[in-house]
UniProtKB/TrEMBL annotation:
This is CCA-adding enzyme. Residues 249-395 form the CCA-adding enzyme C-terminal domain. It comes from Enterococcus eurekensis. InterPro entries: Bact_CCA-adding_enz_type3_sf, CCA-adding_enz_C, CCA-adding_enz_firmicutes, NT_sf, PolA_pol_head_dom, PolyA_RNA-bd. ATP binds at residues 32, 35, 116, 159, 162, 165, 168. It is an enzyme of class 2 (transferase). Gene3D superfamilies: 1.10.110.30, 1.10.246.80, 1.20.58.560, Beta Polymerase, domain 2. The keyword Secreted does not apply. Its cofactor is Mg(2+). It catalyses: a tRNA precursor + 2 CTP + ATP = a tRNA with a 3' CCA end + 3 diphosphate; a tRNA with a 3' CCA end + 2 CTP + ATP = a tRNA with a 3' CCACCA end + 3 diphosphate.
Length: 406
């Protein structure tokens, strides 16, 4: 098969391939971008594979950076774009079902394509538009089938992450596993335990965000892979309910975690441990906790002004975007407007600050100061006083003289 028209991203990178070829080596576009072009989808990263060894690539191109030279990857800098160029390689020694600790550079494209995970990820695209398809990936694309390259049992043994990658492709592409590939995942699912959580999490989040999440989660349950993912053991019932939610695609990691956590029937105080187990960042954890709290209030009694203030626009939008999964209406416009109408949006908007209070009351900073500021914040938000310096002093004098005298 030959493509008559290449997408802009490949056109732009053609001079790179031509230069590699002119130096006497082979160069191809490979990986997910070739698959995505064949599917008519937008592409994000252009990966180039070559028979040239890293040192040879560096001698062909004047400006390069060693980004992963031990894996054979050199970043080539060109005026418009930078390209990762990776030497054909085989991955010889796999230990403990994880990524190989040694790679061997080879001159053969076939060897390189053989180590790739699924047939639809194992195409190479030549500079003249020819698709190299050594494993009948084109037929699998046509039939929407995910088939391991070679013997699936061996391939999942070599690197068990491939099972999670497969599940996320089910969710992203709506493809089904070929029978032997699926059987092999069911048989080997426990190997996932050996894989670093960070790598599993990346794939799981992609699974949650896929267009065909329902299919992906169903297969995650059927293959039992969930049993070896953090904190999910024994939770197939809850995952099943989660898979049956309205099929709308999730759009952010935070949104996805909140919806999942709510369906696992966790409480706000369980979130930290759950997401720590998935090795999520503290920032993600905080955002999920806030959105989860917002969601519970919004579902049960609605937002107070103090809660709108605490959540801020971004989290309000996330909470609202989740309501349709509960057969409720997304009213982001209404509540963002309510948020905009709040008299203040941050402590810095208050007409007094810590220094003003210390000067006014002739007191050193301390616990009282933090409390006094909080009192002002709440009073202004609830409309008990206007946000004006004198009004705030008056308010504190009348209502909180005790706090200030102490
Ligand atoms: P995406 O579109 O999400 O980037 P991708 O298929 O390009 O998907 P990458 O992680 O960017 O995924 O990997 C690029 C290519 O490298 C894959 O298409 C596949 O050929 C190969 N690959 C990546 N990870 C593995 C793995 N664990 N085992 C075998 N081949 C892999
Ligand atoms: Mg990619």
């Amino acid at each position: 098969m030959k493509l008559t028209q290449l997408p802009r991203e490949f056109e732009q990178a053609l001079p790179i391939l031509k230069r590699i070829e002119a130096a006497g080596y082979e160069g191809y576009f490979v990986g997910g971008s070739v698959r995505d072009v064949l599917l008519g989808q937008a592409i994000h990263d252009v990966d180039i594979a070559t028979s040239a060894f890293p040192a040879e690539i560096k001698s062909i191109f004047p400006r390069t950076i060693d980004v992963g030279i031990e894996h054979g990857t050199v970043l080539v800098l060109s005026d418009e774009e930078n390209y990762e160029i990776t030497t054909f390689r085989t991955e010889s020694t796999y230990q403990d079902f994880r990524r190989p600790d040694q790679v061997e550079f080879v001159r053969s494209l076939e060897e390189d394509l053989k180590r790739r995970d699924f047939t639809i990820n194992a195409f190479a695209l030549r500079e003249d538009g020819t698709i190299v398809d050594l494993f009948n990936g084109l037929a699998d694309l046509e039939n929407k089938v995910l088939r391991a390259v070679g013997n699936p049992y061996e391939r999942f043994h070599e690197d068990a992450l491939r099972m999670m990658r497969g599940l996320r492709f089910v969710s992203q592409l709506g493809f089904a596993f070929e029978e032997r590939t699926k059987e092999s995942i069911i048989e080997n699912h426990a190997l996932l335990e050996k894989i670093s959580v960070e790598r599993v999490t990346i794939e799981f989040v992609k699974l949650l965000l896929g267009k065909n999440r329902k299919l992906g989660i169903e297969m995650f349950i059927e293959t039992k892979c969930f049993e070896y993912c953090p904190e999910l053991k024994g939770r197939s019932g809850q995952l099943r309910v989660f898979s049956e939610l309205p099929a709308m695609q999730l759009t952010s990691e935070v949104q996805a975690w909140v919806l999942l956590i709510d369906h696992l029937l966790l409480e706000e105080q369980d979130i930290r441990q759950f997401l720590k187990a998935w090795k999520c960042s503290n920032q993600t954890i905080r955002q999920v906790q806030q959105a989860f709290k917002g969601l519970q209030w919004r579902k049960e009694q609605g937002y107070s002004k103090a809660l709108l203030y605490e959540l801020q626009k971004e989290t309000i939008s996330i909470v609202e975007s989740l309501l349709p999964y509960y057969q409720l209406e997304d009213e982001a416009t209404l509540y963002i407007e309510a948020y905009n109408q709040l008299p203040i949006h941050a402590l810095a908007d208050l007409a007094v600050n810590g220094n003003d209070l210390m000067t006014h009351y002739q007191k050193k900073g301390g616990k009282w100061l933090k409390e006094a500021l909080e009192v002002c914040e709440t009073a202004v938000l609830n409309g008990e006083t206007v946000n004006d310096t004198q009004a705030l002093f008056d308010y504190l004098d009348t209502h909180f003289s005790q706090l200030i005298k102490e």
